[in-house]
Amino acid sequence: MSENLADFAVEQNWAGYSEEEHAIWRFLFERQQRLLVGRACREYLDGLAALGVAAHGIPDFERLSDILDRATGWRIVPVPGLIPDAVFFGYLAQRRFPATCFIRARDQLDYLQEPDIFHDITGHVPLLVNPVFADYMQAYGEGGLKARRLGHLENLARLYWYTVEFGLIDTPDGLRIYGSGILSSAGESVYCLDDPRPQRLRFDLRRVMRTRYHIDRYQQTYFVIDDFQQLFDATRPDFTPIYHELEELSDFAPDSRVPGDVTVAIGQKKGPRLHAARV
Ligand code: PHE
Ligand code: FE
Predict the structure, then answer these.
(1) Residues 134/72, Cβ–Cβ less than 8 Å
(2) Which of 217, 219, 226 is nearest to 256 (CA)?
(3) What confidence tens digit (pLDDT) does each residue in 139-150 have?
(4) Which of 6-10, 104-108, 168-172, 266-270 is least confident?
(5) Collapsing DSSP states into helix, strand and coil, what is residue 49?
């Protein structure tokens, strides 16, 4: 890799945040806390609780990193904003999560197209406390470097989009959110579970890698995993032959419905699993 990772790291300068910036954080944090009860997956809520310092205002990355490091060996690296793909993947492959330092302004509370500190920290970091998800993110970083060499970044970016950013997970209590793009959005955290319009389909690796996505509106399709182990296992094989297979196949529109799709009903309960989980 030609880029030097250290060239993209900055100082967080935690002492430099204003009271107004901390107040924006608290507003967003408290709003999501209320919305995410019964909507976010357990692994996320557990991770958030483990990172308790995040509740009081914009957290100091060093303090968060120390907690995260003890749990799964990940650390947070402050970056100025969007960074080159190779740098991003290089960090993930080393169990380093690049996070932006700035927070959105008052007039952007509901929607922001680029990641800010609230999205990066409350959306992504709590799941890095989970050992299986932590390993998935590292494998994704390694896979990103490879996809780049092979010219298939677009396919891999869709996997990231439909899992890490906008993934849903099926649980004995019904569908839950694990995608960070949803977890940090007040509107979409309700829409993705409650609105009849988007389709919710069972996760299928090739289907996901063929599906384009919108970056500027709520998703039209969400893919649902059973658990993080399923996601990790499905993405473990070498993607090289899969990328070659995909070269022969067309892409799907974000709202397409294709043979083989399996719809997951909202609030679907799994009797046997529910029972097993209670005994
Ligand atoms: N197994 C993938 C590959 O060979 C790497 C990967 C793992 C990609 C997990 C994404 C997520 O490219
Ligand atoms: Fe993100």
Answers:
(1) yes
(2) 219
(3) 999 999 999 999
(4) 266-270
(5) helix
How far is ligand 1, taken at its centre, from the CA of residue 242, in Å?
11
Reported as type and span, the H/E element at residue 182 is helix 180-183
pLDDT of 278 above 70: no
- Which two tokens mark 21? 């910036």
The pTM is what?
Answer: 0.93
Ligand 1 pocket, 161 CB below 6 A?
no
* CB of 160 sitting under 6 A from ligand 1: no
Cβ of 143 below 6 Å from ligand 1:
yes
pLDDT in tens, 34-52: 999 999 999 999 999 999 8
Cβ of 242 less than 6 Å from ligand 1: no
What confidence score (pLDDT) does residue 267 get? 64
Average pLDDT, the chain: 92
| Residue whose tokens read 């070659």 | 244
The residue to mutate among 140, 148, 208, 240, having the most atoms of ligand 1 within 8 angstroms of its beta carbon, is 140
pLDDT in tens, 73-109: 999 999 988 899 999 999 999 999 999 999 999 999 9
From the list 65, 119, 180, 188, the catalytic residue is: 119
Q: Which ligand is nearest to the CA of 82?
A: 2
What is the DSSP track for 186-233? Answer: HHHHHHHHH-SSSEEEE--HHHHHTB---SSS--SEEEEES-HHHHHH
Query: Cβ(137)–Cβ(164) under 8 Å?
Result: yes
Take residue 138 and report the two structure tokens written for it. Answer: 């590292």
